[in-house]
Amino acid sequence: MKQQTIQLRVRYDECDPMGFVHHSNYLRYFEIGRTEFLRSAGGRYRDVEEAGLFVVVARVDCRYKSPARYDDQIELTTRIVNVTAAKIVHEYEIKRGDQVLVQATVTLAVIDRQGRLQRVPESLIQ
C-alpha cells in the first residue's frame, strides 16, 4: 500500500465561529493530500487534464472523530488502497499528535471532456 504523510497548519479562514475546522475544509485537505502524493511520484494533475482527462470525486465516506482547531499543526496521511480500470480509492487520516481527528475514504473516477467514464491512465497507476 502506497502512502504519504504531510504536515498542514489550520488557518483562521478554515474555521467556523466556534474555532473548529469547518467540515467542508477536510475535503480540501484531502485534495491537497492527493495532489502532493501525485507530485511526489513525479506526476501532475495538469498533465492529465492537458491529455483531455479529468479526475473527479465519485464518492466520499468521512468520519469526523474530533475537531481540529485554528493554528493546530495536523498530519495528513494519504494512502492508495485500490486501483481498478475505472477507479482509484484513497484513504485519509488526519491526526493532531497521536489523536485521530478524521478518517475518510474517497473514490475517484476518470472522465473525458464530455463526461464519459475512461480507464484510469497508466500515469496515475504508477
Any overview of this molecule?
By secondary structure, the chain is α+β, with helices and mostly antiparallel strands. It has one domain (2-125): Thiol Ester Dehydrase, Chain A (Roll), CATH 3.10.129. The protein has helices at 25-40, 45-50, 122-125; strands at residues 2-9, 53-64, 73-83, 87-96, 99-112, 117-118. Strands 1, 2, 3, 4, 5 and 6 form a 6-stranded antiparallel beta sheet that branches. Strand 3 (73-83) and strand 4 (87-96) form a beta hairpin. It is elongated. The two termini are 12 Å apart.
Structural domain tally: 1
Outline, from the CA principal axes? elongated
Number of DSSP E strands: 6
What is the string of SSEs from the N terminus onward? EHHEEEEEH
Family: Belongs to the 4-hydroxybenzoyl-CoA thioesterase family.
EC number: 3.1.2.-
GO molecular function: fatty acyl-CoA hydrolase activity
Keywords: Hydrolase
Structure keywords:
alpha+beta, 126 residues, six-stranded antiparallel beta sheet, 3 helices, Thiol Ester Dehydrase, Chain A
